[in-house]
Amino acid sequence: MTTIYNFSAGPAVLPKPVLERAQAEMLDWHGSGMSVMEMSHRGKEFTSILAKTEADLRKLLDVPNNYKVLFLQGGAIAENAIIPMNLLNGGAADYVVTGSWSKRSVEDANAYGKINVVASSEADGFTHVPAFSTWKLNKDAAYLHICTNETINGVEFDGLPDAGDVPIVADMSSHILSRPIDVSKYGVIYGGAQKNIGPAGLCIVIVREDLLDRASPLTPAVFNWKTQSENQSMINTPPTYGIYIAGLVFEWLLEQGGVSAIEQVNIQKANLLYDYIDSTDFYINNIALHNRSRMNIPFFLADESLNDAFLKGAEAKGLLQLKGHRMVGGMRASIYNAMPIEGVQALVSYMQEFEKAH
Known about the structure:
- Pfam families: Aminotran_5 (PF00266).
- It is an enzyme of class 2 (transferase).
- Keywords: Amino-acid biosynthesis, Aminotransferase, Cytoplasm, Pyridoxal phosphate, Pyridoxine biosynthesis, Serine biosynthesis, Transferase.
- Belongs to the class-V pyridoxal-phosphate-dependent aminotransferase family. SerC subfamily.
- It is a single chain.
- By secondary structure, this protein is of the alpha/beta class.
- It has 2 domains: about 15-255, 3-Layer(aba) Sandwich (Aspartate Aminotransferase, domain 2), CATH 3.40.640.10; about 260-355, Aspartate Aminotransferase, domain 1.
- It contains 9 helices and 14 strands.
- The chain has helices at about 15-25, 45-60, 75-85, 100-110, 225-230, 240-255, 260-280, 305-315, 340-355, and strands spanning about 5, 65-75, 90-95, 115-120, 145, 150, 155, 170, 190, 200-210, 285, 295-300, 320, 330-335.
- The strands form 4 sheets. Strands 2-10-9-8-5-3-4 form a 7-stranded mixed sheet.
- A hairpin with a 4-residue loop joins β6 (about 150) and β7.
- α1 crosses α6, α3 (about 75-85) packs across α4 (about 100-110) and α7 packs parallel to α9 (about 340-355).
- The mean pLDDT is about 95.
């Protein structure tokens, strides 16, 4: 049987040991006689899962004690509205647009107050992060919003600007846990789970405690970070199974040696693919070298009339979901933590074959 490698941008590949563990525990979690999907979210079984999941995430990211970890619903797109509800409260916020998702964040936030786009690379086709020196920051902004890895465009931040006392709010959906980060440099970190953490539907928010008192009085309780933090993310029924799978992923990551260890694997995988793309004129990647994403690698065939043939041949080899996002076309290989290096090796081998044949 052909080995399948799933390059989907999300919902994305999960570690095989995680899926096997979930399979083994599907009908009976730890002798409880229940599936996790059947448990009361307030029962001792699930509250123990939630507590361990949070503890393991804190360990992986070295989350300081003055930050709350929330397990919410609606994915990262819901946070586009929830963030200004919790932080804007009559003020203005700065946003940087480096790809399709940060552009969407601006569009969604506009309904809640004054949103200033202080830097954008849209005119250049979203091929880089604008130099920090060009950002027109407002020292009185309620927050500065960035997307540190653009899934569609394949653009990743290689540092952070000096925002002074303005809290940085970062959408890290597609590269969280792929490298060490200094959580203390951010006011808020958030991300949908379906790329590097678990199944769709879960969103993780890490928020500094001093930012929990800024919500508009019109913020519904279910969207109020302070209310959720005071209720252990359970003012309503949380996405219990998504939290459980995330917990298994966190355990798997710790077994790999944590984010520092997985970063080295991610660098190796990304270099393997980029080095081949750069060695030929047959394939093209236009992203600035210092902003190339390690997780999402878009590329184009110089002769785009071959796109369908490339995808058909890839599928026959077990290399799935390589078609680029409909907004940009071309191809895209998403090589998250769970993608083994053998998958990238198989992709490069196929790309070499296809080039020789055409």
